[in-house]
Write a structure and sequence with these properties.
CATH superfamily of the largest domain: Gcn5-related N-acetyltransferase (GNAT)
Strand content: 25-35%
Structural class: alpha+beta
Bound molecules: coenzyme A
Shape: globular
Number of strands: 15
Order of helices and strands: EHHEEEHEHEEHEEHEEEHEHEE
Number of helices: 8
CATH class of the largest domain: Alpha Beta
Distance between the termini: 25 Å
Radius of gyration: 19 Å
Amino acid sequence: MMTENLVIRPITEEDRAAVISVEGKSMPHWRYVERVFDQFMSHPTGEFSIAELDGQPVGIAKFTTMPEGSAWVETLRVDPAFQGRGIGKSLYKRFFDIANEQGVDTLRMYTGMQNKVSRGLAEHFGFTLEASFYGANFQFDGSHPNKSHGFKPVTDQTTAADLLMPLSDEWNGFMVMNRTFYRLTSELCGYLVDHGRVFADGAGNVVAFGARFMPDVSQHIGLFGGDAEACLSFAKAEGQARGAQSLACLFPIAATETRAVLQNAGFEETPAGFIVMKGMV
Ligand SMILES: CC(C)(COP(=O)(O)OP(=O)(O)OC[C@H]1O[C@@H](n2cnc3c(N)ncnc32)[C@H](O)[C@@H]1OP(=O)(O)O)[C@@H](O)C(=O)NCCC(=O)NCCS
């Protein structure tokens, strides 16, 4: 391990190109930092961090506070030329330092089911598996009929909580958008209402719907309940109306009915699933 000259500090505007480059090297297929850089920088209570070894940018990580007070640790990337030298662990330690400073007691992360290094690193810091999800995507080709539907945004937290909280067990206690696993709590219901992301039709059907970032790339079904056909039909119509390329939904691996419903509605599953892990500070 060679981390004597390792410095971890908050990212500044001047680091933009270096940050994008680190992600490009460490993630050949799944990149989004360029699109979310400004949003990550403007997050008031999180930290977007960079690791520099002898002044050279070698790693990045993001600490994001969640509506119910936990933290979501994400976008951890180390330049492959510098992996296996303790830089990922140093970025994790930074997560714990920030959590301690902020009085945050719970951290969560997600990774691909096959990402043994990412899971092993989390386990090194005491994280345990909380849930496993599959992913499914529906590609818009412009031909989806814009069916009329009775769904409208829910405008108060109580109604949203009444509709969403009973779905908690079925969705393993999470609502997922942009692969961000939000713990389903009444605080989250308020957050979703504030962001216009809960839709209901008055007949008991409800969809948490929207995007945390990159709304043009994909809109997300965070969870849904009631008549699945009505919910998915709304999500397709709304997603297409918003000009997204695709519609995504992550669902618990035990939710076999949801899986079948998505398949029947033309969604294609992602090659591998995802795990969400929890760590205590
Ligand atoms: C995940 C990643 C950030 C790790 O960074 P790193 O600097 O190489 O990690 P470190 O050297 O600090 O720590 C390595 C630790 O990971 C764990 N680990 C490594 N290989 C492992 C394996 N095959 N199985 C289980 N755990 C493993 C161990 O805990 C190891 O610590 P140890 O060497 O003391 O045993 C880096 O591999 C990366 O950027 N990968 C691509 C992006 C990515 O997958 N990000 C994660 C979430 S999407």
